[in-house]
Amino acid sequence: MMSPGGDAMAADAITGSDGAGSGLSDLLAGSLAGVAVVLVGQPLDTVKTKLQTLRGLYSGPAQCLAHTYRKSGLRGLYAGSSPAMVAGVAENSVLFACYGLCQRAVAAVTGARDAKQMDALSNAVAGCAASVFSSVVLCPAELVKIKLQAGRELAESRGQRFQGSVYRVTKDIVRHHGLGGLFRGLEMTVAREMPSYFCFFGVYEAVREALKPAGRTRADCGLLATTVAGAAGGVLLWTVTFPVDVVKSRIQLDDAMPTRGWTMCMLHVYRNEGMVALYSGLAPTLVRCVPSSAVLFLVYEYTKKLFDT
């Protein structure tokens, strides 16, 4: 899943120049912005994944961050960066294309003249529908990323040696589970993405509407207002769907866990570890929202201007 900043970029790109987000400059600027978000936010994403999947091993985000750095240096904190970047670029491209189609479909149903006339709820519905398609390209990359981020600790807990790389992890998955194994956790990815994008697009547009200059449109919101809107949407989407993300991360990391009945897995975690376990790693995720959003919008806005000149 894109970071909250990444979600904000998607919405701004789509609702910006042509209402459908299908322009080449939007795709190129969005892809570069997605790479920038990974560079800025990957260490905290690594901490989030470890806290989600390795319950009890670390006392908190700070201790997890420090231990990972001492053990593996910056390389450990940036584990999984390559598939994360692939996920960001692929998800953005598919999301932009599908969101434009979904916007036009929703506009036709609601009677809106065009995408720019759609209200926050209509944009939320369109984003929710588009997320189904982006989940398909996102799932394999997130699967590899999670195994690279937390695979070492899982292997050590079982007395095994972990030698991870994108190639080795991918090859191991395909060898043991076939190509279908790359889509382990797809059902949960869709279950996370649909409410996430519904919440994000709705809140994002509502906040931009509230912060727009007097007598102007949402498209006239400045960088600060747009960043605030993206951060607000990001905080809500992660808070609402984080328990699903926790279960998804655990199932994708550990092949011994069943892939079916993820709602029962969530209930099992709740009964045995409490509600706090379903929100393990939320703090670093929310902290990541602010710098990720700021960097993403700076890169996106200036890159798009460069492509449009």
How does this structure look, described?
With 309 residues, the protein is an all-alpha fold. The longest helix has 38 residues, at 120-157. Helix 2 (24-53) packs across helix 3, helix 2 (24-53) packs across helix 4 (81-110) and helix 5 packs across helix 7. It has helices at 4-15, 24-53, 61-77, 81-110, 120-157, 166-177, 186-211, 223-253, 262-273, 282-308. It contains ten helices and no strands. 76% of the residues lie in helices and 0% in strands. Belongs to the mitochondrial carrier (TC 2.A.29) family. It comes from Acyrthosiphon pisum (Pea aphid). InterPro entries: MCP_dom_sf (IPR023395), MCP_transmembrane (IPR018108), Mitochondrial_Carrier (IPR050567). It is found in: Mitochondrion membrane.
